[in-house]
């Protein structure tokens, strides 16, 4: 199945060659959606100068050579030289019939690339915050979408599992007892554990601080008993992360863990290689990479510190190792870092240093998918009202409760169990959709009431649209009507508007994969759901004037449902059976 835009592009390109000669082969026809037609081609404006003619004349000649009678009603030249193209209803219906017969619904299978995606990356013994929630949700949607487009995704959960706080955390674990309730807090309320360890460190009774410092040394020296205790902390934290991933229906598993500690053995070599290549120099005792293109205040170059003056390695060194590993060992074609926007400079410096060091060849694309901050109603980074760090689990549970309240009002007739199940899908879907529907690099305000609303550009609105179609199809089946295959036909304008949107699905999914912008798919699905509403208002389905029209409309309903479900699925959002 080929999208309308692709078909028109191909026809326009043939016409350009026929009208102006072979040297115009492959010219971009500058096709855009239009408010006056389905599409407009603006190529005449771009070519007029080169052809030594005026745009309107170029457009007219182009139209004379344009062979689209089977696809469009007569093309029109308008304005300064736009070519307006309106698709024929019968052609749209035939295409929609083809889309319904296509298990991929028109989504292309692309030339496979290997794509490691770094996302989620919470820190051990710490609560995940809303920033981690957003990189988790956006990264997971990108992983699902790229996989669906045929790529091999390697999930890399770069958890923060190394560093000096582990001395204090291990000593605290020993003090409370490995099997104690206090230790188990790590898996349910990690901040409580962290705060308790911190308090012990600050109080420093019985030489705690000293023990903690010695523990760091033992950890770095690879002392087996210390490593075992460290692993215990990781396991408890991982159980906490997994409980959040489960609740969120995120695809990450333990097999995707590739935390900071994974790279420990490589850091010395990274520094040696940089030094040997003349890329790193010692400055104030620290080994630094200076990159001319990164300057700070007063135009002074900012260094990327790869080895601190105390001999320790930094976050940047580890990230150099991540790139080297992903390119050299995983054979990446494209590497994504779905990481908070405030880390942009850090990652740009890492990427630049890796290119210089030869660890990142020119033909491997590396992208920082920047994640914007999530703000509270006060416009500041989201915290609880008391200013304490927010407990993510509590937040997600609150979303589910609010969804339950909305459902209780909207659907009192559902059983409490069923409502509970749906509330979970709706509450979680609402939070995920809020993260996804805004451009990933912009900030947005976290507002649970808006997120769970059944109206507006929300997850629940789309879930509701899908559930409504299911109910139409269910009623048809109960009435003994189940038109599986067969043609979709077009009689009303609302049908053609819906078909035109449906046929754009493949292009949108491919666009999300190319631009790494899930919000495009959200916008598309929202528009699709609105067009469906208009269609359903204007075109009776079960009470259609004749059986052939009714059956065609039911098929159009079925196709819309599949596109909605598939689209929500790529975003990682469930479509409840009923709502
Ligand atoms: N753990 C880090 C944080 O919480 C994010 C790590 C992102 N990934 C990376 N390769 N730097 O901010």
Give the topology, please.
Elements (H helix, E strand, L loop, with lengths): L3 H17 L10 E3 L5 E3 L1 H9 L3 H10 L11 E3 L3 E4 L3 H13 L12 E5 L11 H19 L3 E5 L8 H12 L4 H8 L1 H14 L4 H13 L3 H25 L18 H10 L3 E4 L2 E10 L5 E7 L7 H14 L5 E7 L3 H14 L7 E7 L2 E2 L16 H19 L5 H22 L6 E2 L2 H4 L7 H20 L14 H11 L1 H11 L2 H21 L8 H25 L8
The structure holds arginine.
Detailed description of the structure:
It contains 21 helices and 13 strands. It has helices at residues 4-20, 43-51, 55-64, 89-101, 130-148, 165-176, 181-188, 190-203, 208-220, 224-248, 267-276, 315-328, 344-357, 392-410, 416-437, 448-451, 459-478, 493-503, 505-515, 518-538, 547-571, and strands at 31-33, 39-41, 76-78, 82-85, 114-118, 152-156, 280-283, 286-295, 301-307, 334-340, 365-371, 374-375, 444-445. The protein has a four-stranded antiparallel β-sheet, with helices on one face. Helix 4 (89-101) crosses helix 18, helix 6 packs across helix 10 and helix 17 (459-478) runs antiparallel to helix 21. The longest helix has 25 residues, at 224-248. The radius of gyration is 28 Å and the shape is globular. The structure holds arginine. Residues 118, 121, 123, 158, 160, 319, 322, 337, 339 line the site of arginine.
